[in-house]
Automatic annotation (TrEMBL):
All residue ranges annotated as the Nitroreductase domain in the record: 341-517
MF terms (GO), sorted A to Z: oxidoreductase activity
InterPro entries: Bacteriocin_Proc_Enz (IPR052544), Nitroreductase (IPR029479), Nitroreductase-like (IPR000415)
Name listed for the protein in its UniProt record: Nitroreductase
Pfam families listed in its UniProt record: Nitroreductase
Gene3D superfamilies: NADH Oxidase
Sequence intervals crossing the membrane: none
Biased composition (Low complexity): 261-271
SUPFAM superfamilies tied to this protein: FMN-dependent nitroreductase-like
Amino acid sequence: MGFAHEYAAAIMHRGRIPMEPVGFVPDWSDRPRKGKFYPGAESLPLPDGALPDPGATVQEGVFAASGPRDEPFTLPLLGGMLLDSYGRLGRRLGVQANTDLPSLPLYTDANWYRGTASGGGLYPVTVYWVNGPGGPLTPGVHHYSTTHHAMQRLLTGDVSGEVREALGNGTRADQFLVLGVKFWQNAFKYNSFCMHAVSMDVGAALQTWRIWARARGLRIEPALWFDEERLARLLGVDVAEEGIFAVVPLSWEGTRGDALAPAPAAGGPAPRVRRTESERSRRVITFETVRRVQAATVAHATDRPAPGALAPAVALPAREGGRVPLPEAPPLTMGVREALRRRRSSFGRFDAREPLSAGQLAATLAAAASASVGGDAADPGGPPLAKLYVFVNHVAGVAPGAYEYVADDHALRLVKPGPPGAFLQENYFLSNYNLEQAGAVVVPAVRTAAVLDAVGDRGLRLVNATVGAVAQTFYTTASALGLGGGVALGFDTVSFVEELDLAGSGEAPLLIMLVGHERPGSADFRYEIA
Ligand SMILES: Cc1cc2nc3c(=O)[nH]c(=O)nc-3n(C[C@H](O)[C@H](O)[C@H](O)COP(=O)(O)O)c2cc1C
């Protein structure tokens, strides 16, 4: 049994058995930047991609009602997708219940928001664009600078063959987005917990792209299994310090079909980015647990699961028991771009005076249940990895209690009757939410150990990316419905296993996701920059 099993179990029990280093205090004055900084790199500003597309609704992005399409990317589309997902869109200045509230008006502590949620607001995902000759720019490797909404050139020359060979799946693409995570960007705050949070962040970022792209007929199908060490070398990073989590091949305008015969990787010394990044922290700490779990997930990185390998680990069928049917979900007619710009965490602003309607709950559950990271981890049309449970606090026409969401029947199965508010609050570690005031609290659960048994330690990234994808879909849906949303990792997992009776099934509750109405008229200041 690999270290990923041990790590997942330690994460699950951390509310009762603290993980090392116990008592760790972050040095905030020496914190790293929220993105990589390559001094002197040539910048190419990206278009903002404000292409009018009335069909690009959240409904289409989440459910792809018009069927799978594979339209080509263009530079404006790539620019639009990156801006709406990870670019800086504005500054948070609203009054909320987080402890950072007093510092938000200080420019040095400004909190620039993005379309994608991120654990602790740290945005640790680095996006690289490896562009071959089929695209609009001179071939090379670029880094997406979120601060400038620009591509920064790190290497010149066609190295797309390196990526194709690292993928080893016969792709003919020559444009790739590569997602890296420099662990220190998160670990300076969360130490050993880092891997758990960042692998969800990767899923959240991928899912923003998937929703954004699907709404416009484009495809985002990431590979999670590939020669990670080869790509880390290409990008000039140490794989122990920066993991390469996903590779997304892009169909590009003008390079369809057999017109392009992709070149193999050139012989001779392996190409690599020589430009070095500047780290802001004077002292960078290596956490043994992060190092070990990263080593475990890299070890068999090229062992892509065979089709059907995940079958023993998918969500189990719903248990027997009375069902509460849910009404048809209202369509999510808001545009994806607008929904992402309106998306934000409620942080203490839930207000139960207006209950959630059953239709709103139905739409949120249906959307979240449809989320997956796709790509080489997917079994198209097969059962999902995650199952949703829901604690109903205040939903019109649905009695308070804990339920299992039965996606196939679009119904709820009662697990435990009675108001769950006290249980939820007692098992939440932070004080920034009154969970009882949310209309409902949804909990995605995955059979983590079964996934690791089925596909090996790298499956840990798949589990967490799936949960991140569910979370981002949840947020985007709440935003499209004009509701407040929030997700949190700070809860006692073991208590949730007991409350939902999951010990026998091996399902691990991995996140709590809150939805409901917010207090009307709470103070805010609009500060939009994109
Ligand atoms: C994987 C993940 C874990 C998170 N965990 C928590 C949490 O434990 N508590 C919390 O209040 N917010 C949590 N959040 C929400 C983030 O704090 C939030 O997305 C970030 O601060 C940016 O704020 P915004 O969502 O308003 O843009 C989490 C988000 C993600 C994606």
